[in-house]
C-alpha cells in the first residue's frame, strides 16, 4: 500500500519529540532527522526504495547512518549495495478510532504517568515498585504517536500490553486526536491488530555498520 510522505512525517515527528531530538526536515523526496547518537548519527526516511533513496545512499560513507522506507525488507535489500545491512521487518500501523477496552489492569499492578521530553510515559509497576511494562505517546497537532511499548520478560502474557495501550489511548482520547500511528515489530503486531490497529505498510531499515 502506498504511504504519503506527510503520514511518515507525522510518525517521525512524534518519534523525534519522544526523544528530545530535532524535528524532521525535508530532504529531496524524503525526510531527515539529525539524531546525533553514537549508534545512530542520522536517519533518512523515504516512501519508496527508488532513485531518491539510492542517490542518498550513494553519498553516505560513514557508519551508523540509517535509511528507512515504507517497503518490504527484500525491496530495500535490492536497492542498496551489499555493504548495507537490513534489519528485521517492522510495520507502519494506524488505528482509525479509539481502542475498545478489552481488559483492566491486574490488581497487583499500578500505573504511573510522567512526561519525558515531548512524550507522556506510562509505567506499570509491580508490587515491589519495579517497572513491569512501559510505553509512550506523543500528542502533536491531532496525531498520537505510540512509541517503545514494552513488557518486561517476567510479566508477559498477563495482559499488561493491552492495559498499557489502553492507558496511553485514554490520553489520546482526552486530547481529541484524530490519528493514531505506531511502528511495530513482528512480535507486537498481533497485539495491536487485536486492539483494532491496521498495517498501512511495511517499514524497513538499512544501515552501514562500522568496518
From TrEMBL:
GO molecular function, a single term: acyltransferase activity, transferring groups other than amino-acyl groups
Keyword presence, Transferase: yes
Transmembrane segments: none
Ribonucleoprotein is among the record's keywords: no
Keyword vocabulary terms for this entry: Transferase
Ranges for domain N-acetyltransferase: 69-211
Name of the featured protein: Acetyltransferase (GNAT) family protein
Amino acid at each position: 500500500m502506498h504511504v504519503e510522505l506527510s503520514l511518515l512525517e507525522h510518525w517521525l515527528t512524534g518519534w523525534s519529540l519522544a526523544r528530545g531530538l530535532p524535528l524532521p526536515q525535508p530532504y529531496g523526496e524524503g525526510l531527515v532527522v539529525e539524531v546525533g547518537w553514537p549508534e545512530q548519527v542520522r536517519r533518512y526516511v523515504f516512501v519508496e526504495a527508488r532513485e531518491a533513496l539510492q542517490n542518498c545512499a550513494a553519498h553516505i560513507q560513514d557508519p551508523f547512518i540509517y535509511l528507512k522506507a515504507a517497503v518490504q525488507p527484500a525491496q530495500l535489500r535490492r536497492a542498496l549495495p551489499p555493504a548495507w545491512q537490513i534489519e528485521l521487518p517492522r510495520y507502519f500501523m494506524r488505528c482509525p478510532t479509539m481502542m475498545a477496552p478489552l481488559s483492566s489492569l491486574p490488581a497487583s499492578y499500578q500505573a504511573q504517568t510522567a512526561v519525558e521530553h515531548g512524550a507522556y510515559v506510562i509505567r506499570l509497576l509491580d508490587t515491589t515498585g519495579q517497572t513491569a511494562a512501559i510505553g509512550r505517546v506523543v500528542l502533536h497537532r491531532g496525531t498520537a504517536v505510540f512509541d517503545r511499548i514494552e513488557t518486561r520478560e517476567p510479566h508477559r502474557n498477563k495482559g499488561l500490553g493491552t492495559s498499557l495501550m489502553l492507558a496511553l489511548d485514554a490520553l489520546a482520547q482526552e486530547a481529541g486526536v484524530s490519528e493514531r500511528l505506531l511502528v511495530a515489530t513482528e512480535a507486537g503486531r498481533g497485539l495491536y491488530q487485536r486492539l483494532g490497529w491496521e498495517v498501512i505498510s511495511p517499514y524497513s531499515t538499512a544501515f552501514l555498520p562500522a568496518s
